[in-house]
């Protein structure tokens, strides 16, 4: 039964990504050839964007470490940092954010409790990104961007939560260890983690901003915040490895709303966000965890 469910989820991931990718390819075929500047200042900006993304990745690892400590699953700060890199490598090379599950398995201990810390991370991300998007809407007005679609997505999320409340007692007991870390967020500890989450996503927005400088696409602060919020909220949609199709469609949609050229920017942004962290995560995985028994 589990194998059937896993296979169907895999097919759903592939279908979503292929549909989005087909739309991206159709759009790109009707655009001018992308322009990626190779000037010294553009390359320096690109190096700066990679460094900024390394900083935001470190902030993510620190956030996860604090969640683990709070829930009595402390394996040391260094282990949290290593597994964060491995997790992002897995998300970029495996479907349906399987890198998060890879982190859970390699961390050891109670897998439900470890999974709960990852769920808590995702909840913090959703709230932080929603807050950032709200700031952009306040700055640019209600008519800016695909607001109706996001509102519909929010209503769908509320409906899913309402349905989850009606779960059977047996299923509720099964997921209680997973929910424990999220319940811990309803505290001063959680407020501090939310502030850290907003800071790290603002830092990632600076990556998007600097990539724009490297590709002669001037987003501005609110534009960069808008692109990072819309793009990463789209990462919640089931997709193929590296969010192929869904990520690209979200970036193109956001830049189209801003009236900015997109294809060259998208290619450079994909390199900055996916290539270095995948290389680092793969190196950490094969040198430290690759020989562990299943």
Question: What this model shows, in words?
Answer:
About 80% of the residues lie in helices and about 0% in strands. With about 290 residues, the chain is mostly helical. Helix 1 runs parallel beside helix 10 and helix 2 packs across helix 5. The radius of gyration is 19 Å and the shape is globular. The two termini are about 20 Å apart.
Give the count of helical stretches. Answer: 11
Taken in chain order, the helices and strands follow as HHHHHHHHHHH
Low-confidence stretches: 1-6, 8-18, 23-30
Between the first and last Cα atoms, what is the distance in angstroms? Answer: 22 Å
Number of strands: 0
The secondary-structure class comes to mainly alpha
CA radius of gyration: 19 Å
Strand content: under 5%
How much helix, percentage-wise, in residues? over 70%
Question: Could you name the key traits of this structure?
Answer:
about 80% helix, mainly alpha, about 290 residues
């Amino acid at each position: 039964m589990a194998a059937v469910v896993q296979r169907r989820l895999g097919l759903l991931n592939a279908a979503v990504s292929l549909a989005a990718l087909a739309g991206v390819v159709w759009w790109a075929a009707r655009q001018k050839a992308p322009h990626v500047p190779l000037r010294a200042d553009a390359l320096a900006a690109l190096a700066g964007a990679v460094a900024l993304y390394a900083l935001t990745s470190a902030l993510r690892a620190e956030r996860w470490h604090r969640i683990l400590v709070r829930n009595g699953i402390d394996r040391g700060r260094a282990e949290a940092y290593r597994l964060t890199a491995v997790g992002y490598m897995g998300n970029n090379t495996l479907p349906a954010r399987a890198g998060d599950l890879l982190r859970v398995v390699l961390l050891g201990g109670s897998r439900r409790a470890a999974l709960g810390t990852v769920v808590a991370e995702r909840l913090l991300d959703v709230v932080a990104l929603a807050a950032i998007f709200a700031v952009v809407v306040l700055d640019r007005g209600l008519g800016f961007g695909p607001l109706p679609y996001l509102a519909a997505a929010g209503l769908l999320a509320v409906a899913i939560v309402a349905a989850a409340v009606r779960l059977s007692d047996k299923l509720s007991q099964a997921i209680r260890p997973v929910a424990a870390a999220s319940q811990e967020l309803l505290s001063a500890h959680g407020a501090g983690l939310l502030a850290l989450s907003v800071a790290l996503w603002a830092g990632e927005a600076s990556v998007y901003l600097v990539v724009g400088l490297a590709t002669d696409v001037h987003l501005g602060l609110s534009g960069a915040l808008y692109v990072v919020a819309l793009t990463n909220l789209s990462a919640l949609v089931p997709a193929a490895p590296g969010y192929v199709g869904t990520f690209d469609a979200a970036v193109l949609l956001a830049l189209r709303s801003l009236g900015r050229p997109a294809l060259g920017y998208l290619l450079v942004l994909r390199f900055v966000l996916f290539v270095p962290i995948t290389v680092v995560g793969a190196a950490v995985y094969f040198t430290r965890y690759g020989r562990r028994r299943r």
